[in-house]
Amino acid sequence: MKSLELVIAHFLFSLDFSLLHNCIVFTFFFTTIVFTFCFTTIVFTFYSHNLYAISLQHHLIFITLVHNEKKNIFTTRIYSSLSYFIRFLFLHSTFTTKVLTKKFYQTTKLLFTSFFVIYKMASSSHDEFSQLLNEEFDNLFQEEFDNQFQEEFDNSLEEHQQPRKPRKKRVHIERHREEGHIRLWNDYFGDYATFPPNLFRRRFRMNKNLFMRIVDRLTNEIPFFPQRRDATGRLGFSPLQKCTAAIRMLAYGCAADAVDEYLRIGETTSMKCMQHFLDGIIYCFGDEYLRKPTAEDLQRLLIIGEIRGFPGMMGSIDCMHWEWKNCPTAWKGQYTRASGKPTIVLEAVASQDLWIWHAFFGPPGTLNDINILDRSPVFDDILQGRAPKCKYVVNGNEYSLGYYLTDGIYPKWATFIQSIPLPQGDKPSLFAEKQEACRKDVERAFGVLQARFAIIKNPALIWDKERIASIMRACIILHNMIVEDERDMYTQFNVSEFQQAETEGSTRVDFSYDTYMPSNIVDLMAARTRLRDRTKHEQLKNDLVEHIWSKFSSNQV
Question: What is the pLDDT, as a whole number, of residue 101?
Fold first, then answer.
């Protein structure tokens, strides 16, 4: 190594060029070094998939320059700066990844060889002694570089080939999924099922025919649910197993691995089943069972309201909170209410049969009913002129805007009717009694929804808010499907009453109204003024007090 340094020193001392030649040499040296390292970085990136670890921490070259008094000051400074630059570059050039390939080694050798060949071509004015020094320098440098590089390469290769710690293999559990399907079929779906229909209704939250309808629809339209064979030809989980796992998790709010013992489905597969089940329910049944009231639906709702003493009533509106246990820390201040726990709010409109007609889920728990109403799309169709027109008469006065029954926090708009907090007299007391009885429809709907699906009653354990919203939306759709399937079993109204009310009642709905009318800003502001008319609210409330007294006063003792 010392001989190499001596040869380099003598080689540099023998140079005595002009000022212009020195500048050209310095520029050539600096450009070649920068190009070398840029090119090697590209080669390293391209061949990084088959690299071997190697370290270049040892000194590849050590250049020592002694200032020569015979040389001019400018030349001495150039070569001194160049020597210190090369020394710093080679002494401190430890690649962060410390990996190199044989292709990179060959490229480096080629670049260094080209460097000195070009330099010799540029020094055409050298004498024979300089040429001999150049040849000797090339031989010594090549030999020293090959020895150092090969030594480091062999050492790193040995370290790389040391035995690694064996990876822990994934534990495989043979669950015998075929037995799980046979057990499920014999217990609930066979001709001689073990459990009767009432237990099926209790554990699946719906009748068997409705559940089979859901399974058939998901199997035909969602690619995840059909039964397939794996690579070995073995049948996978059946659609009944997948849907049952999802329903059990929603109905009982249990963990994903709680169905493993009965259905033979692991935790990860159970989570996939529930996610695809939620997406499938929303995709297949969302447009039908979470729709806005059509003209026929509105006609039926107004007739039920008139029978109950409230002509023009479309249902009752209120909000429900769902606790979010795993709310992100950064959001807890936004979602935490007075109880000290973060919650997500659901605004819903429900009718007497517990059908949920409107569901707005997602606002943080710190908002009250008024703030949520400002964000809610419940009146968008009315404001944009797309809602069906209706007319009804209360106490001899005609109205054309339906309303919801609410509690005392909602504003006094023409579309909201609240109770009387401290009724004075028989008429206000009777009105408050009837209004609070009908307004409980939405409270009952919330209670039934939480009783059917315990996952909504328990704190939400999911981090993703969109996943929580899909759970709520799917549960509401399933709730409405159950209501439609079982509505005739618990309704307290006779069908003949509806037919009589259609002919004798004062409620009328315009079935020929076009719900796709284009809206403009003038109509929107006019509709907004009608919705928030406080005078119309007071007039409608007084007429309802008189109407209820004339309708139900004879029944009071």
Answer: 43
Average pLDDT of the residues of the chain: 77
Q: Rounded CA gap, 540 and 546, in Å?
A: 10
Label residue 534 exposed, middle or buried (CB < 10 Å: 0-12, 13-18, 19+).
exposed
For 91, phi and psi rounded to 5 degrees?
Answer: -75, -30
pLDDT at 463: 85
Mean pLDDT of 251-259: 91
**Are the CB atoms for 368 and 410 separated by under 8 Å?**
no
How is residue 395 written in tokens?
């106490």
- How far apart are the C-alpha atoms of 463 and 335, rounded to whole Å? 13
Q: Residue type for 29, please?
A: F
Q: Compute the distance between CA of residue 480 and CA of residue 372 in angstroms, rounded to an integer.
A: 23
User: In 10 A of CB 500, how many CB atoms?
Assistant: 13
Nearest residue to 314 via CA among 436, 442, 502: 442
**Which residue pairs, CB below 8 angstroms and at least 24 apart, start in 419-424?**
none
Contact 213, 243 (CB under 8 A): no
**Tokens in use for 312?**
């023009």
Taking the CB of residue 469, how many other CB atoms lie within 10 A of it? 15
Instruction: Give dist(CA 402, CA 161) in Å, integer.
Output: 80
Q: How far is CA 219 from CA 242, 243, 491, in A?
A: 10, 10, 32
Residue 243 carries which side chain, given as an amino acid letter?
A: C
Where are the alpha helices (H) located in 47-101, listed in sequence order?
73-91
> Which candidate, 109, 127, 101, 115, places its Cα nearest to that of 35?
115
Among 166-175, 278-287, 317-326, where is mean pLDDT lowest? 166-175
Nearest Cα to Cα of residue 395 among 550, 240, 189: 550
Report DSSP state, residue 348.
Answer: E
Per the CB < 8 A criterion, the answer to whether 55 and 159 are in contact is no
Question: How far is 4 from 83, CA to CA, in rounded Å?
Answer: 14
Distance CA 333, CA 341 (A): 10
- Rounded to two decimals, what is the model's pTM? 0.69
Sign of CA dihedral 287, 292, 297, 300: positive
